[in-house]
């Protein structure tokens, strides 16, 4: 079977809404590369959209999944306890404590984690309102879509969940002109406080949900002082702070959690993606006194905390500890960030380079203007790199951000080879674009 044949079969049976960023396929994969049915090898800078921090098919994880499948494949955990769930919960509490006592519930996806985090927050506070941010992405379930900012993910899907309030993300690149970062942050925090007087009363707000680093939104990093100030505001008004670490967790920023860079501990947090190396598993974590306020029967699910998924996630985390995934995230991030900053000096189409650890992106704009996104150049770059054997993905509300989510186990040789391809293709496309524009 060829790649083209597989894609034709896909088109015949899969809805058109399941879009492809590039007409590519994968037959098998290892580490930081995958191979198509045509036998073409690709450097993977997508990591399954942040799922493969520990690489494709890490051997200890494959072995753990196989062994568990031969012993116990399913119980409904609410009815029948199994040890892999408890072991995984204990490991998560060990590496990601939320204060003095932490509790964990397993689910199947990041969107499910967000749904349950909202349910827990509302029950814990007796309030209904949820504050979220522009550019945020929190999934495609009904509450997830309501919280998600990008309108193209929501077309024709409403009406959406009530009592959700969206405020501007503290985006210094686009909105901080004329101010230093500290001045900008103080202004944003003051605006948040005003919002609680003019839009929704704090007594009605159960929680604020925020990605420390926006993923799908374009790799915008929450300013350190802003998140610290937000923590203080939440404490002042009895509002719970939910941090969505679905894409930023498990070594991606050089720490188990992005929030560790801020000296802030959330009341509730959501996790998925690289937690299981591709096995469908996620979780909600939180301070025990918050988690225990959920009423019996309101959280859980048939497959939530499946034994095979739990075994795969536990093996993933133990493997990450063995290879020191946080050190790898820090090192990969330094390499990519420095490379992009150097490339920015040679290509004025790059308006901004930003990131935290190995969660690094570059934003492509026209005429050096942050308010003139260039999704066309971005799309052409993704396609050109695919032709050269580098799989890139874009992000951002306008689709003009290139994000790097390569497996953190990628070798220096492969990482520099991929970055070299990206550089060559971007400069070529930019020169062509400039010629056509008569610049």
Automatic annotation (TrEMBL):
Gene3D superfamilies recorded: Aspartate Aminotransferase, domain 1, Type I PLP-dependent aspartate aminotransferase-like (Major domain)
Matching InterPro entries: Aminotrans_3, Aminotrans_3_PPA_site, Class-III_PLP-dep_AT, PyrdxlP-dep_Trfase, PyrdxlP-dep_Trfase_major, PyrdxlP-dep_Trfase_small
Record flagged with keyword Transferase: yes
Pfam families per UniProt: Aminotran_3
Keyword Transferase carried by entry: yes
Keywords on record: Aminotransferase, Pyridoxal phosphate, Transferase
Cofactor(s) listed: pyridoxal 5'-phosphate
Stated name of the protein: Aminotransferase class III-fold pyridoxal phosphate-dependent enzyme
Organism: Fibrisoma montanum
């Amino acid at each position: 079977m060829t790649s083209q044949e597989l894609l034709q079969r896909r088109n015949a049976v899969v809805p058109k809404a399941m879009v492809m960023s590039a007409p590519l396929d994968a037959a098998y994969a290892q580490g930081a590369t995958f191979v198509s049915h045509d036998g073409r090898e690709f450097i993977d800078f997508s990591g399954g959209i942040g799922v493969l921090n520990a690489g494709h098919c890490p051997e200890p994880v494959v072995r753990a999944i196989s062994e568990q499948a031969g012993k116990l494949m399913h119980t409904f955990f609410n009815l029948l306890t199994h040890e892999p769930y408890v072991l995984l919960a204990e490991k998560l509490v060990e590496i990601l404590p939320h204060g003095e006592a932490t509790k964990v519930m397993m689910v199947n996806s990041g969107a499910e984690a967000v749904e349950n985090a909202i349910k827990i927050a509302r029950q814990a506070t007796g309030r209904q309102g949820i504050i979220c941010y522009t550019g945020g992405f929190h999934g495609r379930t009904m509450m997830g879509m309501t919280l998600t900012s990008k309108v193209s993910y929501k077309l024709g899907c409403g009406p959406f969940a009530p009592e959700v309030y969206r405020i501007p993300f503290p985006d210094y690149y686009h909105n901080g002109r004329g101010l230093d970062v500290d001045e900008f942050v103080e202004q944003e925090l003051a605006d948040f406080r005003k919002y609680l007087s003019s839009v929704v009363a704090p007594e009605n707000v159960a929680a604020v949900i925020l990605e420390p680093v926006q993923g799908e939104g374009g790799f915008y990093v929450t300013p350190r002082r802003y998140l610290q100030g937000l923590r203080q505001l939440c404490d002042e008004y009895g509002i719970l702070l939910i941090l969505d670490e679905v894409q930023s967790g498990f070594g991606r920023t050089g720490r188990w959690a992005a929030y560790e860079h801020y000296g802030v501990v959330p009341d509730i947090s959501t996790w998925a993606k690289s937690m299981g190396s591709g096995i469908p598993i996620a979780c909600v974590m939180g301070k025990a006194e918050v988690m225990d306020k959920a009423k019996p029967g309101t959280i859980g699910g048939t497959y939530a905390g499946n034994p095979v998924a739990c075994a795969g996630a536990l093996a993933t985390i133990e493997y990450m500890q063995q290879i020191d995934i946080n050190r790898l995230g820090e090192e990969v991030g330094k390499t990519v960030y420095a490379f992009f900053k150097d490339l920015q000096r040679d290509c004025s189409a790059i308006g901004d380079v930003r990131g935290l650890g190995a969660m690094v992106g570059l934003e492509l704009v026209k005429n050096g203007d942050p308010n003139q996104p260039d999704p066309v150049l971005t799309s052409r770059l993704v396609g050109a790199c695919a032709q050269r054997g580098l799989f890139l993905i874009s992000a951002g509300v306008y689709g003009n951000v290139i994000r790097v989510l390569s497996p953190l186990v990628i070798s220096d040789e492969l990482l520099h080879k991929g970055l070299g391809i990206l550089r060559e293709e971007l400069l070529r496309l930019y020169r062509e674009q400039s010629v056509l524009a008569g610049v």
